Amino acid sequence: MKTECKSEGIQFQNLKKREVIGKFNGGTITSDGGGILLREVEKTTGIIRDFASCFTDYRDKKRTEHTVEQMVSQRIYGLCCGYDDLNDHDSLRCDPLFAVLCGKEDPTGSDRKRKEDRGKPLAGKSTLNRMELTPATADEKSRYKKIVFYSEKADDLLIDIFIRSHPVPPERIIIDADATDDPLHGNQEGRFFHGYYKCYCYLPLYFFCGDHLLCARLRSSGIDASEGTTEETERIVRRIRQSWPDIKITLRGDSGFCRDKIMLWCENNGVDYVLGLAKNERLKALLSEGMNEAQTIYEETAEPSKVYRDFYYQTLKSWDKERRVIGKAEYLRKGENPRFVVTTFPDIEAKELYEELYCQRGEMENRIKEQQAELFADRTSTSEMRANQLRLYFSSFAYVLMSSLRRTGLKGTQMEKAQCGTVRKKLLKIGAQVNVTVRKVWLSFSEAYPYIEIFLRIYHNLTGRSEPVPA
């Protein structure tokens, strides 16, 4: 049914004697005006440009209206602004602000070749979908899908971006490894039922250094959580040491990564580790004296108590040598809560190693939650594993871009530690009127925007400019 609300207006409830009327006649308005800040981040970092170089485009240039870099930009900026579905891009393709972000020379789309495409400067969902589904074997002779993605280049790029972000090499870094579930609701390639998570899912493997993403590897869940960790660690460490040969590196992970193969590789390659160790009866027996002491303290104070013990331990079969283990004997209201970690560090005091080094790995879990819950890393709904891995890369580089905005633009503001979802809600999702003239693109933001001062501070941090621009 055709509606007349665009011209006639929508009648809302009155404000006392005043009528409240709404019309869809405000001109060209975007709801993502703050996304222009991400374009400033891209200008200084080249994150999207470099990611686009991980693709090879075999399309006929004479028939091509959207470059790979523009399409990659469209996907990444879309994720940053909260658009997880390709269907969203059939509307976003008409947004002149997104066209500006993606570097379209004519943000209005009036230069499109086909009449039906005019006014739509960006690619639609079908064009973007073909890019995601291009097989690795495609070439210029392929019929439709001709944009080939090379994951090895993207893997190296994540580490290169991390290295570039440090003007001075750090003395030591800690690399966190963790796996998480990515629930599946279809018959995707590689799906497997995971007993712990009680669902069909993928089991992606992540590596972070602080808030820097170093690796995001999509895997079937029918494997051990640590599968591939040694190979990924070797690749990451080798790449980092090419630039920083004297760097000291520590690998940190929970008990799912306490595997002899991983520990042996670290020991043989000068990498320290602090890994959780699953409790068993032998370990609990070695900690029994400490646990009795913790229980005594609890009974005297009625407060949770912790006592640390330091000893050497070797498994009966899986380890080929003794290793240093820190045991935490904790007694709570509900009873005993023993915890263990194994480490290569010989001299760090037990309490300091556990509380100040090992426990900090929990921060990595927040970074994974950001990427999955707020940047849609779990939007792996295509039928092919390769395409789903590419979607994970899109989410990963969206995270890297947002993290760069947080690290450089938000520095010194009240939002410098805000998560991606908060940054999006308060800084990116800003209504703005877009007016494209021959010489300028005008963005008119609301005078009532509550974070004007923070926005201007971020602009100054990103550009170094604070003076007003002449009209």
Strand content: 15-25%
Instruction: Give the averaged pLDDT, no decimals.
Output: 94
What is the overall silhouette?
A: globular
Biggest sheet features: 9 strands, mixed
Distance between the termini: 44 Å
**Low confidence ranges:** 1-5
Taking Cα atoms only, what radius of gyration do you get, to the nearest Å? 26 Å
Structural class: alpha+beta
Number of helices: 17
Helix fraction, binned, reads 25-40%
Number of strands: 19
Record keyword descriptors for this entry:
alpha+beta; 471 residues; 3-stranded antiparallel beta sheet; 9-stranded mixed beta sheet; globular
List the helices and strands and how they pair.
Blueprint: H1 5-8, E1 10-15, E2 18-22, E3 29-30, H2 36-45, H3 47-52, E4 55-57, H4 68-80, H5 89-92, H6 96-101, H7 125-133, E5 147-149, H8 151-164, E6 172-179, E7 182-183, E8 192-194, E9 199-202, E10 205-209, E11 212-217, H9 229-243, E12 248-253, H10 260-268, E13 271-276, H11 281-286, H12 288-301, E14 305-313, E15 323-332, E16 335-336, E17 339-343, H13 350-358, H14 362-374, H15 385-409, H16 420-428, E18 432-436, E19 441-445, H17 452-463
Parallel strand pairs: 6-12, 12-13
Antiparallel strand pairs: 1-2, 3-18, 4-5, 6-10, 7-9, 8-9, 10-11, 13-17, 14-15, 15-16, 15-17, 18-19
Helix pairs in contact: 2-15, 2-17, 4-15, 8-9
